[in-house]
Prior knowledge:
Pfam families: DUF485 (PF04341). The chain crosses the membrane at residues 20-41, 53-78. Keywords: Membrane, Transmembrane, Transmembrane helix. This protein is 78% helix and 5% strand. It has one domain. By secondary structure, it is mainly α.
Amino acid sequence: xxxxxxxxxxxxxxxxxxxxxxxxxxxxxxxxxxxxxxxxxxxxxxxxxxxxxxxxxxxxxxxxxxxxxxxxxxxxxxxxxxxxxxxxxxxxxxxxxx
Length: 98
C-alpha cells in the first residue's frame, strides 16, 4: 500500500522556502548588478585602492562571495526552522486526533 507522504504542512513549508529563496536571490542580484554596473559604466572606480592596498574590484568581488555564503547560511537556518515548526505542528495535530 502506497501512502502519500506529502501533507499540506509540507507543501506550505515548500512554498515558504521557495519565497525565501527567491527573495534572497533578488537581494543578491541587486548587489551583483551593482558590481557589473560599476564595471561597465565606471570601470576606473574599480581600480581605486580602498582597503589595505586592495582595489575596489577585489574587495567588492570577495564581498560578494562572502555575502553569498552568509545568505546560504541564512537560507539554511530559516528552512530548518520552517521544517521544524511544521514537524511540531504535525505532532500537535496527530496528538489531537488521538
